Amino acid sequence: MATLRQWAQGARPRTFPNALAPVLLGSAAAAADGGGGFLWWKALAALIVALGFVIGVNYANDYSDGIRGTDDERIGPMRLVGSKAAAPGAVLRAAVASFAAAVVAGLVLAATSSWWLVVLGAGCLALAWFYTGGTNPYGYKGYGEVAVFLCFGLAAVLGSELSQTGRISASGALCAVGAGSFSAAVLAVNNLRDIDGDRASGKRTLAVRLGEPRARLLYLALAAAPFLITLGLAVIHPWTLLSLLAALILVKPASEVRHGARGQALIGALGATGAAMLAWAALTAAALCLFERGLL
Protein backbone atom coordinates (compact mmCIF):
# COMPACT_ATOMS: atom_id res chain seq x y z
CA MET A 1 0.00 0.00 0.00
CA ALA A 2 1.37 3.39 -0.99
CA THR A 3 2.27 5.82 1.78
CA LEU A 4 0.85 9.32 2.02
CA ARG A 5 4.22 10.64 0.83
CA GLN A 6 4.09 8.39 -2.24
CA TRP A 7 0.55 9.54 -3.04
CA ALA A 8 1.73 13.13 -2.79
CA GLN A 9 4.65 12.39 -5.11
CA GLY A 10 2.27 10.65 -7.50
CA ALA A 11 0.22 13.84 -7.72
CA ARG A 12 3.39 15.47 -9.18
CA PRO A 13 3.60 18.76 -7.26
CA ARG A 14 6.07 20.16 -9.81
CA THR A 15 3.11 20.53 -12.17
CA PHE A 16 0.97 22.54 -9.72
CA PRO A 17 2.12 25.88 -11.19
CA ASN A 18 0.13 24.82 -14.27
CA ALA A 19 -2.97 25.27 -12.10
CA LEU A 20 -1.95 28.19 -9.89
CA ALA A 21 -0.52 30.51 -12.55
CA PRO A 22 -3.52 30.57 -14.95
CA VAL A 23 -6.03 31.28 -12.18
CA LEU A 24 -3.79 34.03 -10.82
CA LEU A 25 -3.55 35.60 -14.27
CA GLY A 26 -7.26 35.28 -15.05
CA SER A 27 -8.20 36.82 -11.73
CA ALA A 28 -5.74 39.67 -12.18
CA ALA A 29 -7.10 40.31 -15.68
CA ALA A 30 -10.58 40.45 -14.15
CA ALA A 31 -9.40 43.06 -11.65
CA ALA A 32 -7.68 45.14 -14.32
CA ASP A 33 -10.53 44.94 -16.82
CA GLY A 34 -13.22 46.22 -14.52
CA GLY A 35 -16.60 44.74 -15.39
CA GLY A 36 -17.71 42.66 -12.44
CA GLY A 37 -14.23 42.98 -10.98
CA PHE A 38 -12.23 40.49 -8.96
CA LEU A 39 -14.35 38.09 -6.87
CA TRP A 40 -12.24 36.15 -4.40
CA TRP A 41 -14.61 33.21 -3.96
CA LYS A 42 -14.88 32.66 -7.70
CA ALA A 43 -11.09 32.80 -7.94
CA LEU A 44 -10.93 30.14 -5.21
CA ALA A 45 -13.47 27.97 -7.03
CA ALA A 46 -11.48 28.35 -10.26
CA LEU A 47 -8.35 27.27 -8.38
CA ILE A 48 -10.14 24.14 -7.14
CA VAL A 49 -11.13 23.39 -10.75
CA ALA A 50 -7.59 23.87 -12.03
CA LEU A 51 -5.92 21.87 -9.25
CA GLY A 52 -8.51 19.13 -9.58
CA PHE A 53 -7.74 18.83 -13.27
CA VAL A 54 -3.96 18.86 -12.77
CA ILE A 55 -4.00 16.25 -10.01
CA GLY A 56 -6.63 14.22 -11.81
CA VAL A 57 -4.74 14.09 -15.09
CA ASN A 58 -1.54 13.16 -13.25
CA TYR A 59 -3.22 10.23 -11.50
CA ALA A 60 -5.07 9.25 -14.70
CA ASN A 61 -1.76 9.34 -16.58
CA ASP A 62 -0.16 7.21 -13.84
CA TYR A 63 -3.00 4.70 -14.11
CA SER A 64 -3.16 4.49 -17.91
CA ASP A 65 0.60 4.37 -18.47
CA GLY A 66 0.98 1.95 -15.58
CA ILE A 67 -1.46 -0.66 -16.89
CA ARG A 68 0.14 -0.40 -20.34
CA GLY A 69 3.62 -0.98 -18.92
CA THR A 70 4.88 2.38 -20.18
CA ASP A 71 6.02 3.34 -16.68
CA ASP A 72 7.95 0.15 -15.90
CA GLU A 73 11.24 1.98 -16.46
CA ARG A 74 11.05 5.68 -15.59
CA ILE A 75 13.51 8.39 -14.63
CA GLY A 76 11.18 11.02 -13.22
CA PRO A 77 8.79 11.27 -10.26
CA MET A 78 7.02 8.49 -8.38
CA ARG A 79 4.76 6.30 -10.53
CA LEU A 80 2.28 4.60 -8.26
CA VAL A 81 1.10 1.87 -10.63
CA GLY A 82 4.40 1.38 -12.48
CA SER A 83 6.31 0.96 -9.20
CA LYS A 84 3.60 -1.38 -7.82
CA ALA A 85 3.23 0.91 -4.80
CA ALA A 86 -0.53 1.22 -5.37
CA ALA A 87 -3.15 -0.89 -7.10
CA PRO A 88 -4.37 0.44 -10.46
CA GLY A 89 -7.94 0.65 -9.18
CA ALA A 90 -6.91 2.83 -6.25
CA VAL A 91 -5.06 5.25 -8.55
CA LEU A 92 -8.04 5.36 -10.90
CA ARG A 93 -10.34 6.20 -7.99
CA ALA A 94 -7.97 9.01 -6.94
CA ALA A 95 -8.13 10.41 -10.47
CA VAL A 96 -11.93 10.23 -10.53
CA ALA A 97 -12.16 11.92 -7.10
CA SER A 98 -9.90 14.75 -8.27
CA PHE A 99 -11.91 15.26 -11.44
CA ALA A 100 -15.15 15.15 -9.41
CA ALA A 101 -13.94 17.96 -7.14
CA ALA A 102 -13.11 20.01 -10.24
CA VAL A 103 -16.52 19.32 -11.77
CA VAL A 104 -18.42 20.37 -8.63
CA ALA A 105 -16.49 23.64 -8.34
CA GLY A 106 -16.90 24.22 -12.07
CA LEU A 107 -20.66 23.75 -11.91
CA VAL A 108 -20.84 26.33 -9.11
CA LEU A 109 -18.99 28.80 -11.31
CA ALA A 110 -21.16 28.03 -14.31
CA ALA A 111 -24.38 28.43 -12.31
CA THR A 112 -23.28 31.86 -11.09
CA SER A 113 -21.74 33.19 -14.29
CA SER A 114 -22.00 31.47 -17.67
CA TRP A 115 -23.10 27.97 -18.66
CA TRP A 116 -20.54 28.12 -21.45
CA LEU A 117 -18.10 27.12 -18.72
CA VAL A 118 -19.75 23.69 -18.71
CA VAL A 119 -18.81 23.23 -22.37
CA LEU A 120 -15.30 24.44 -21.64
CA GLY A 121 -14.94 22.13 -18.66
CA ALA A 122 -16.33 19.12 -20.51
CA GLY A 123 -13.80 19.64 -23.28
CA CYS A 124 -10.93 19.87 -20.79
CA LEU A 125 -12.17 16.78 -18.95
CA ALA A 126 -12.17 14.79 -22.20
CA LEU A 127 -8.67 16.02 -23.05
CA ALA A 128 -7.46 15.13 -19.56
CA TRP A 129 -8.70 11.55 -19.73
CA PHE A 130 -7.83 10.73 -23.33
CA TYR A 131 -4.29 12.10 -22.99
CA THR A 132 -3.14 8.61 -22.08
CA GLY A 133 -6.51 6.91 -21.46
CA GLY A 134 -8.81 5.04 -23.80
CA THR A 135 -7.86 2.81 -26.71
CA ASN A 136 -6.28 5.55 -28.81
CA PRO A 137 -4.61 8.10 -26.50
CA TYR A 138 -3.54 11.29 -28.25
CA GLY A 139 -0.60 11.73 -25.86
CA TYR A 140 1.01 8.74 -27.58
CA LYS A 141 0.80 10.59 -30.89
CA GLY A 142 2.51 13.83 -29.90
CA TYR A 143 -0.43 16.14 -29.18
CA GLY A 144 0.13 16.60 -25.45
CA GLU A 145 1.67 20.05 -25.72
CA VAL A 146 -1.31 21.29 -27.75
CA ALA A 147 -3.72 19.96 -25.12
CA VAL A 148 -2.00 21.59 -22.14
CA PHE A 149 -1.78 24.87 -24.08
CA LEU A 150 -5.54 24.75 -24.55
CA CYS A 151 -6.50 23.52 -21.07
CA PHE A 152 -3.94 25.12 -18.75
CA GLY A 153 -3.52 28.23 -20.84
CA LEU A 154 -6.53 29.39 -22.79
CA ALA A 155 -9.28 27.59 -20.87
CA ALA A 156 -7.90 28.14 -17.35
CA VAL A 157 -7.04 31.83 -17.74
CA LEU A 158 -10.04 32.86 -19.80
CA GLY A 159 -12.41 30.70 -17.78
CA SER A 160 -11.19 32.34 -14.57
CA GLU A 161 -11.71 35.81 -16.03
CA LEU A 162 -15.05 34.99 -17.66
CA SER A 163 -16.46 33.58 -14.42
CA GLN A 164 -15.68 36.83 -12.59
CA THR A 165 -16.46 39.54 -15.15
CA GLY A 166 -18.67 37.82 -17.71
CA ARG A 167 -16.31 38.79 -20.53
CA ILE A 168 -12.80 38.34 -21.90
CA SER A 169 -10.34 41.22 -22.19
CA ALA A 170 -7.30 41.73 -24.41
CA SER A 171 -5.12 41.49 -21.31
CA GLY A 172 -6.72 38.18 -20.39
CA ALA A 173 -6.21 36.79 -23.89
CA LEU A 174 -2.50 37.71 -23.87
CA CYS A 175 -2.05 36.22 -20.41
CA ALA A 176 -3.77 33.04 -21.60
CA VAL A 177 -1.31 32.61 -24.47
CA GLY A 178 1.63 33.20 -22.14
CA ALA A 179 0.36 30.71 -19.55
CA GLY A 180 -0.36 28.15 -22.26
CA SER A 181 3.16 28.49 -23.64
CA PHE A 182 4.63 27.95 -20.19
CA SER A 183 2.41 24.92 -19.57
CA ALA A 184 3.48 23.44 -22.89
CA ALA A 185 7.13 24.16 -22.01
CA VAL A 186 6.75 22.20 -18.75
CA LEU A 187 5.44 19.19 -20.68
CA ALA A 188 8.05 19.63 -23.42
CA VAL A 189 10.98 19.41 -20.99
CA ASN A 190 9.26 16.51 -19.20
CA ASN A 191 8.98 14.62 -22.48
CA LEU A 192 12.55 15.51 -23.39
CA ARG A 193 13.68 13.99 -20.10
CA ASP A 194 11.71 10.79 -20.82
CA ILE A 195 12.51 10.58 -24.54
CA ASP A 196 14.51 7.36 -24.40
CA GLY A 197 11.99 5.47 -22.27
CA ASP A 198 9.04 6.74 -24.30
CA ARG A 199 10.70 5.76 -27.56
CA ALA A 200 11.43 2.26 -26.24
CA SER A 201 7.86 1.78 -24.99
CA GLY A 202 6.25 3.04 -28.20
CA LYS A 203 4.96 6.28 -26.70
CA ARG A 204 5.45 8.77 -29.54
CA THR A 205 5.40 12.05 -27.67
CA LEU A 206 6.17 15.22 -29.58
CA ALA A 207 9.78 14.96 -28.37
CA VAL A 208 10.03 11.47 -29.85
CA ARG A 209 8.42 12.56 -33.12
CA LEU A 210 10.59 15.65 -33.52
CA GLY A 211 13.83 14.04 -32.42
CA GLU A 212 16.06 15.31 -29.66
CA PRO A 213 17.64 18.37 -31.37
CA ARG A 214 14.31 19.85 -32.48
CA ALA A 215 12.65 18.92 -29.16
CA ARG A 216 15.25 21.08 -27.43
CA LEU A 217 14.49 23.98 -29.76
CA LEU A 218 10.79 23.54 -29.10
CA TYR A 219 11.32 23.87 -25.36
CA LEU A 220 13.43 27.00 -25.78
CA ALA A 221 10.82 28.58 -28.07
CA LEU A 222 7.94 27.79 -25.70
CA ALA A 223 9.87 29.10 -22.69
CA ALA A 224 10.69 32.34 -24.53
CA ALA A 225 7.14 32.95 -25.80
CA PRO A 226 5.66 34.35 -22.55
CA PHE A 227 8.33 37.03 -22.43
CA LEU A 228 7.51 38.08 -25.98
CA ILE A 229 3.86 38.17 -24.88
CA THR A 230 4.93 40.47 -22.05
CA LEU A 231 6.11 43.05 -24.58
CA GLY A 232 2.64 43.10 -26.14
CA LEU A 233 0.94 43.22 -22.76
CA ALA A 234 3.13 46.16 -21.75
CA VAL A 235 1.52 48.25 -24.51
CA ILE A 236 -1.69 48.10 -22.42
CA HIS A 237 -0.14 47.90 -18.95
CA PRO A 238 3.49 49.15 -19.02
CA TRP A 239 4.37 47.90 -15.55
CA THR A 240 3.93 44.29 -16.65
CA LEU A 241 7.47 44.62 -17.99
CA LEU A 242 8.46 43.70 -14.43
CA SER A 243 7.52 40.11 -15.27
CA LEU A 244 10.59 39.92 -17.52
CA LEU A 245 12.54 39.38 -14.28
CA ALA A 246 11.16 35.82 -14.22
CA ALA A 247 13.45 35.06 -17.17
CA LEU A 248 16.34 34.94 -14.72
CA ILE A 249 14.98 31.68 -13.33
CA LEU A 250 15.21 30.13 -16.79
CA VAL A 251 18.86 30.98 -17.48
CA LYS A 252 20.19 27.73 -16.01
CA PRO A 253 17.53 25.32 -17.35
CA ALA A 254 17.66 26.88 -20.80
CA SER A 255 21.43 26.47 -20.82
CA GLU A 256 21.12 22.84 -19.70
CA VAL A 257 18.61 22.06 -22.42
CA ARG A 258 20.62 23.90 -25.06
CA HIS A 259 23.85 22.12 -24.13
CA GLY A 260 22.43 18.61 -24.25
CA ALA A 261 21.42 17.67 -20.68
CA ARG A 262 19.53 14.38 -20.65
CA GLY A 263 17.54 12.15 -18.31
CA GLN A 264 17.90 12.93 -14.61
CA ALA A 265 19.91 16.05 -15.41
CA LEU A 266 16.66 17.60 -16.67
CA ILE A 267 14.66 17.07 -13.47
CA GLY A 268 15.85 20.44 -12.16
CA ALA A 269 14.93 22.10 -15.45
CA LEU A 270 11.37 20.83 -15.08
CA GLY A 271 11.04 22.34 -11.61
CA ALA A 272 12.68 25.60 -12.67
CA THR A 273 10.31 25.97 -15.62
CA GLY A 274 7.33 25.62 -13.30
CA ALA A 275 8.88 28.13 -10.89
CA ALA A 276 9.46 30.60 -13.73
CA MET A 277 5.86 30.18 -14.83
CA LEU A 278 4.61 30.97 -11.35
CA ALA A 279 6.97 33.94 -10.96
CA TRP A 280 5.95 35.34 -14.36
CA ALA A 281 2.29 34.99 -13.45
CA ALA A 282 2.75 36.56 -10.00
CA LEU A 283 4.68 39.56 -11.34
CA THR A 284 2.20 40.05 -14.18
CA ALA A 285 -0.76 39.76 -11.83
CA ALA A 286 0.78 42.19 -9.36
CA ALA A 287 1.34 44.75 -12.12
CA LEU A 288 -2.23 44.35 -13.42
CA CYS A 289 -3.80 44.67 -9.98
CA LEU A 290 -1.69 47.64 -8.94
CA PHE A 291 -2.40 49.32 -12.26
CA GLU A 292 -6.14 48.92 -11.70
CA ARG A 293 -5.88 50.51 -8.26
CA GLY A 294 -3.90 53.44 -9.59
CA LEU A 295 -0.83 52.58 -7.52
CA LEU A 296 1.41 52.29 -10.58
Short précis:
The protein has 296 residues and is mainly alpha-helical. It has twelve helices and no strands.
Structure description:
There is one protein chain. By secondary structure, the chain is mainly alpha-helical. It has a single domain, classed as Farnesyl Diphosphate Synthase. It contains 12 helices and no strands. The longest helix has 29 residues. The model has no long low-confidence stretch (mean pLDDT 91).
The percent range for strand residues is: under 5%
CA(first)-CA(last) distance: 53 Å
Largest sheet, strands/sense/barrel = none
CATH architectural type: Orthogonal Bundle
Number of domains: 1
Shape, per Cα inertia axes: globular
Query: Using DSSP, what is the number of strands?
Result: 0
Count of alpha and pi helical runs: 12
Portion in helices: over 70%
Secondary structure category? mainly alpha
